[in-house]
């Protein structure tokens, strides 16, 4: 639920204050569009879909939370693909004045979409991308809601040091996510 309140805060900071007209009067929108990109068939995707839909319903059912503004979610199934489909889906969200994007669940796709979200000044909240190179210095509109792989690798390094192992073999996928998750 903490991720949801972070999303609500970012939606209003980005959607209401950064996209207002040149006048000093700020009006509350009737609808706030949020996009979500993740794989519907993965275990994480199945849980995320239900959680997001339930959170949106809870907020929209309680008029005291957003004071008459309705959250509208548009979900796109990434079908476990990496780059190109993610770009297309992210650009489709921008046609509907989307103020924030949830996902993707893979670091490789998060890298690709982060470039778009930075250029368009739209927050990208990922609940599963763990690549340590997705940082706020390079991607100021990327928000990670899970821990970076650096924490896991630091724990593995401490175990190796504790047992004084001298030879360790790291098995990883040979892509940006796999290479960045392994310490030298």
Proportion of β residues?
Answer: 5-15%
Tally of alpha and pi helices: 7
Separation of termini?
36 Å
Going across the major beta sheet, what is the strand order?
A: 2-1-3-4-5
Main sheet record: 5 strands, parallel
What is the tally of beta strands?
Answer: 5
Q: Strand pairing plus helix content: what structural class?
A: alpha/beta
What is the average of the pLDDT values?
82
Q: How helix-rich are the residues, as a percent range?
A: 40-55%
Question: Any descriptors?
Answer:
184 residues, 7 helices, 15% strand, single chain, alpha/beta, five-stranded parallel sheet, 46% helix
Write the layout of secondary structure elements.
Blueprint: H1 2-17, E1 31-38, H2 43-61, H3 63-66, E2 70-77, H4 83-94, E3 98-102, H5 107-120, E4 124-126, E5 142-144, H6 149-162, H7 176-180
Parallel strand pairs: 1-2, 1-3, 3-4, 4-5
Helix pairs in contact: 4-5
Please give a structural write-up.
With 184 residues, the chain is α/β, with parallel strands linked by helices. The chain is 46% helix and 15% strand. The chain has seven helices and five strands. It has helices spanning 2-17, 43-61, 63-66, 83-94, 107-120, 149-162, 176-180, and strands spanning 31-38, 70-77, 98-102, 124-126, 142-144. It has a five-stranded parallel beta sheet with strand order 2-1-3-4-5, sandwiched between helices. Helix 4 (83-94) packs parallel to helix 5. 30% of the residues are buried.
Summed up:
The protein is α/β, with parallel strands linked by helices and 184 residues long.
């Amino acid at each position: 639920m903490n991720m949801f309140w972070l999303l609500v805060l970012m939606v209003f900071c980005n959607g209401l204050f950064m996209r207002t007209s040149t006048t000093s009067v700020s009006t509350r929108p009737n609808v706030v569009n949020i996009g979500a990109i993740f794989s519907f068939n993965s275990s994480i995707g199945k849980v995320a879909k239900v959680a997001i839909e339930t959170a949106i319903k809870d907020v929209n059912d309680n008029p005291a939370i957003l004071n008459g503004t309705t959250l509208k979610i548009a979900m796109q199934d990434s079908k476990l693909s990496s780059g190109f489909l993610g770009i297309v889906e992210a650009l489709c969200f921008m046609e509907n004045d989307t103020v924030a994007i949830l996902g993707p669940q893979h670091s490789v796709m998060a890298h690709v979409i982060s470039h778009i979200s930075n250029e368009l000044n739209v927050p990208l909240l990922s609940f599963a991308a763990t690549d340590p190179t997705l940082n706020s210095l390079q991607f100021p509109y990327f928000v990670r809601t899970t821990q970076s792989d650096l924490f896991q690798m630091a724990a593995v390094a401490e175990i190796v040091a504790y047992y004084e192992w001298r030879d360790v073999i790291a098995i990883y996928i040979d892509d940006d996510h796999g290479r960045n998750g392994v310490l030298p």
